[in-house]
Write a structure and sequence with these properties.
- This protein is of the alpha+beta class.
- It folds into 3 domains: 2-69; 85-184 and 293-311, no CATH class; 192-275, no CATH class.
- 31% of the residues lie in helices and 14% in strands.
- Helix 1 runs antiparallel to helix 2 (23-69).
- The longest helix is centred in the N-terminal third of the chain and has 47 residues, at 23-69.
- It is elongated, with a radius of gyration of 34 Å.
- InterPro entries: Pan_app.
């Protein structure tokens, strides 16, 4: 700004003196004035860029200090909200809810529409397996599109640690009609649980009751990943705590394994299988998933009443 003011003042003085010059000199001076004006404008632009660069550097330094203050290394990019949410597979919707997914993340499937108002957020059944087609799939939207185009694929799930999963029809939550394969209607929880009887080849190879059924020697953190095959939730008393659940299992001569979770209750049966790996913290993040609506299904609970997932 200073440069422009000074040059303007000088040009004004020169212009004032032009009235005293001959026409030829006036033309030469005019050319000089134009050149000076262009040079002044260029200097002003360069000066502004230098000032803006200095200001940006100061802001970056301040931001770097702020990043360090919250524990993020300087230079590490902040995650973009949408990209991070897609990678973690948990996005809010207009309805909100734990594990809910934004409508625009999952493309529609016009030929075989997805079942409405649900998300396959929970632990997957063994029938839903990793997609091995080409090209590889690295996001939920692509996983959905490929499943939509496949007549064999009814259910799909995606999570950043396991990738894209495709499979046949699956029951969800409290549904009892349809196939035997089942998917939890909630994101993976950490459970308490233990094996009471160890089996191999259909036979009991190790009876652990002496240690597992003793509060001094039991280890309720032995199996923290959710397992399958434990049947329906047990009594209200057994569901009060991990200790109550263990005692209920140990009081049943046929019980071979038990699991308890404070929001879901107590489950035990002769055996459990397909236990989720609890060593990876990502294993407790929700999946993104859908399944195609099948007219042959009623989607009802054990009482024959329609059941819907609560997001």
């Amino acid at each position: 700004r200073v440069i422009i003011v000074v040059v303007t003042q000088k040009m004004g003085g020169i212009a004032g003196s032009l009235s005293k010059k001959s026409p030829a000199k006036k033309r030469r001076v005019s050319v000089v004035l134009v050149a000076v004006a262009i040079a002044a404008a260029s200097c002003a632009v360069l000066a502004f860029k230098a000032w803006d660069l200095q200001r940006s550097s100061g802001a970056a330094a301040a931001n770097g200090a702020a990043e360090v203050a919250v524990g993020r290394p300087v230079g590490e990019k902040r995650p973009k909200t949408a990209e991070t949410a897609l990678a973690l597979t948990a996005l809010p919707t207009k309805n909100g809810g734990n594990g809910a997914v934004a409508d625009d993340v999952v493309p529609e499937c016009p030929g075989s529409p997805w079942k409405e108002d649900e998300n396959m957020v929970g632990t997957r059944p063994g029938t839903v397996k990793k997609y091995k087609g080409s090209p590889p799939i690295h996001d939920a939207a692509s996983c959905a599109r490929v499943c939509c185009d496949s007549a064999e694929c009814v259910t799909w799930q995606f999570r950043r640690d396991v990738g894209c999963l495709h499979g046949p029809d699956t029951r969800l939550g409290m549904e009892k009609d349809g196939v035997s394969a089942w998917c939890s209607d909630h994101p993976p929880y950490r459970w308490s649980g233990q094996y009471v009887l160890e089996r191999s080849g259909g036979k009991v190879t190790n009876d652990r009751r002496s240690t597992v059924c003793n509060l001094k020697t039991w280890n309720p953190r032995e199996v923290e990943g959710q397992c399958f095959g434990l049947g329906d939730v047990r009594t209200e008393r057994a569901s009060e705590s991990a200790e109550r659940c263990m005692e209920a299992c140990c009081a049943d001569e046929t019980c071979g394994a038990w699991q308890w979770q404070k929001d879901k209750g107590c489950f035990y049966n002769k055996r459990m299988h397909g236990c989720q790996d609890a060593s990876n913290p990502v294993a407790f993040e929700p999946f993104v998933g859908r399944r195609k609506f099948l007219p042959s299904r009623k989607y009802v609970d054990k009482s024959g009443k329609p059941w819907k997932q609560v997001l």
